[in-house]
Records
---
Amino acid sequence: MPLHVWSSAKYSFPLPNGHRFPIAKYARLRERVIAEGIVPTNAVHDPVRVSLDDLLLVHTADYVDRFTSGALTNDEERRLGFPWSEALVERAYRAAGGTIEAVRAALDEGVAMNLAGGTHHAFPSHGEGFCVFNDVAIAIRALQRDRLIDRAAVIDLDVHQGNGTNAVFADDDRVFTFSMHGGRNYPFRKVAGSLDIELGDRAGDDLYLALLADTLPRVIDAARPDLVVYLAGADPHEHDRLGRLALTFDGLARRDSMVLEQCREVGIPVAVTIAGGYGDPIDDTVQVHVTTASIAARYSRS
Ligand SMILES: [Zn+2]
């Protein structure tokens, strides 16, 4: 059984020269997972746009309307971190659509992956930190509405805290939000999740993996999830420009294996999203995401 992944040429959109968001990574990741035989081309799916009904499970109609029509204020645009464009709208809708399709596939196949998504800084009524829509929250809410799942766990190992996701699920005891992140990283005002672990600067593989090994079983026990959504951020890598941690490529690969292994042991499906990564060169970030896909592929085949 191949790993099914979602990716679109429309995940990319034009940005001004010198913008620090690594938009090139989406196309390169797609090319590499195909070129390296990790995913056969017929298992790479182009997502449809997220529907308005699904968006409104998480976001306010006012925010969705104003973002879609290009009516955000200058302050809102600055907080989001992107200049508005039609192409940005298309990307936001497609990327959320990709996560929705991936979570549905994960329920059927055990593991599936969106080669984007994990935009965890998006709140119901605003976007920030390069995150327009909270794809993970929308996807979980859509499955709950369709009675495909009752409970879910978000395992957020991006180096930044998923403040938007935590805000969405703050009063929902059916969704357990676990985040392990750099304490001194953005967002500077954290929103408490079900379980947050803050790491100091330059934390490396040994500390990180020991904490994760100790914590994951407790997360699964407490969450009793029907589905895990995993945010496999590349930004804990030692050469990330924003991350402040010091994980190696090998450490990140062991992290991914640990999450997938833990879920397989208890028979819980996992949908993977790539979340952040700001490597210099950006190929470092792409390498981390490619490795995540290859590990996910191993779990989907076994
Ligand atoms: Zn991040």
Note: The chain has ten helices and eight strands.
---
Amino acid sequence: MKNFDLIVVGSGIMGAFHAYHAAKKGKKVLIIEKDNFPVSATVRNFGQAVPSGSAGKWFNYGRRSLEIYKDIQQQFDISVRKNGTIYIASDDTEWQLANELFDIHQRQGYECSLLSKRQCLDLYPELKQDYVRGAIYYPNEVSVEPNLLIYRIIQYLQEQLGVTYLNNTGVINCTDVSGKVVVTAAGSQLYSADKAIICSGYVFNLLFPEIYAQSGMVVSKLQMLQTVPLTNVSIKGNILTGLSIRRYESFEQCPSFKNITTPEHYSELKKWGIHILFKQAIDGSVIIGDSHEYAPVGRTDELGFDTQNHINELMLKEAERIMSFPVRKIARAWAGFYAQHPNDIFEFDVSPNIHIRTGIGGKGMTTSAGYAENMIASLL
Ligand SMILES: Cc1cc2nc3c(=O)[nH]c(=O)nc-3n(C[C@H](O)[C@H](O)[C@H](O)COP(=O)(O)OP(=O)(O)OC[C@H]3O[C@@H](n4cnc5c(N)ncnc54)[C@H](O)[C@@H]3O)c2cc1C
């Protein structure tokens, strides 16, 4: 039986960064992934790393994650681009929240600026004049290419940090045996380690189903669209809009947040958890999303695998209200899923050496690198 210091189950962004920090500490690490390559939330997202959207310790994990992303990027191209983040307010309520968050982030020493309507239109000529009231802008935030990042990180882990990566291998059991953790893969191969960390995303039926059934986690289904390459369009960075201001955790800290009301034209969008984000990929195509539907553990199949036209249409209509480029030149549509816990993350220790860490929700690309650093420091 092959022996390691740490076995990480799952090679999404959470598993990859737990492996990264353990390997940086000189540990002998094995990652086991059930698919040929990760194909779940970690590759189906926008690739926006936006600490500005989080609050409290998650804001700090996000800030630390930016440093880690930038540090790796200097040594190895993992597709990190520092193009900043903008939240575009469309009415007085959203503009008020943007101003209040600006004050909070100024006090916290997090670089940002307020942009007037004119400045927004100069920076993003594709914005529709009627939509824009003003914006808050974060120059140091980054975006990544979700279809590249995780593959490059896995390559980096193997080539530079000596991590062993075993794919096409589903883990079906993980147990303590005489002071060691023994992991069983489908096919009956056994691997042992001093510790195991389970970062299995929203897969609840292969390992510890009884624990997940009691966990309180839900799965969120998000619909996403991507245009054909739009070579004449240049919208840099992470672009978030009015409904994001009304939705993201960071804005909940603002004094006026508790008094905001929902205008009628937002009500159908809110019903489907829609807020509109844009992220231009390297090839010029623009990712547009997203919506949110929820189901508890055990009933996630009911969310379906397909995308609903009604939701796509709502998103495209709102996107057309915001941008003048041809948002309907859609090349691809997909659904992404992530696990989410009411306490922001599901941390459960099955035994002193087997640790479940999943359910990071919609902030995994932003915060996993910093979160995992903290976790590895406390566990190893
Ligand atoms: C549409 C969409 C847009 C998003 N946009 C953003 C964004 O812009 N910014 C942001 O910060 N976050 C975003 N997120 C959230 C982010 O993508 C997730 O928080 C993050 O990817 C979760 O990572 P994970 O490693 O926990 O899970 P996953 O990515 O689901 O990875 C889990 C891995 O574990 C493997 N696995 C599971 N069980 C086993 C087993 N028994 N044996 C072996 N392998 C196993 C799976 O095959 C999978 O590869 C978005 C999510 C979605 C769906």
Note: The chain is about 30% helix and 25% strand.
---
Amino acid sequence: MGTDIYRFQIGDLQCVAVSDGTHTYAPPTFPPPAVFLFANAPREHLEKALSEQNLNPEQWTEWVSPYICLVVHTGEHKVLVDTGAGGLAPTTGKLVQNLKTVGITPADIDTVIITHGHPDHIGGNTDTEGKLVFPNARYVMWKDEWDFWNSEEATLKLEEHVREVLLGYAHKNLPPIQGQLDLIDRETDILPGIQAIAAPGHTPGHMALTISSRDERLLCISDTVLHPIHLKQPEWHAAVDFNPEKVVVTRNKILTRAASEKAMLLIFHFPFPGLGHITQEGEAWKWQPISVN
Ligand SMILES: [Zn+2]
């Protein structure tokens, strides 16, 4: 279970990084990884950045991305951040099974925070019959995000088959939570110690979180960055980033804060468990993953 669950503590809060599995992004469904992840990167700079990560643009044909959800046990509340991808691929939808190994059943979760409405973050909201997987939870989402997925403009500029998957997931997994959903539109406390941060760009209402106890802090930044190279090249955006200019502004705001507060970061698509610290290096950031035994 070495890459499925990772327990850690933020002050008095018991936290667990929980894998939902991995997904392989590759042609023909997706562009080649370098094009998908770094859509606007100048070619010669891209080759240099890739080679620093021991990646060759011609040979890098697939991006195997982890999907990492978070559980926070506050003592009073059991909180889940994002629900994974459900049955998006045979390699996804492992969240519930991995929660069981840490003694949590879906009925125990009383709060589900959705960082944004992409399939890999909402796909575990419902089961194959469309029933809520976490039936007792209050759901929390940023209002702009909810409005976006219920609007006509949702994902219009994406390729047809990608748009179909995104809208299909939104239509299956968002309406069922509506009766137990709290929409927020400012940087408020969702629960004591858990605060919403506006992080628009990747999607219109993409949300990050601070999770604080005593003098320790975790910044759960979801898809503010997707790949470690985005920390070195924060102006490079992915093909799926809805508003590239806002992605860069949001990255700058949140990463500057993480570095100055020496907060731990949790990044959804990074190598498991997705936890580490950053330090500022000029216009970029240096990633230091936690050491996991
Ligand atoms: Zn994602």
Note: The radius of gyration is 18 Å.
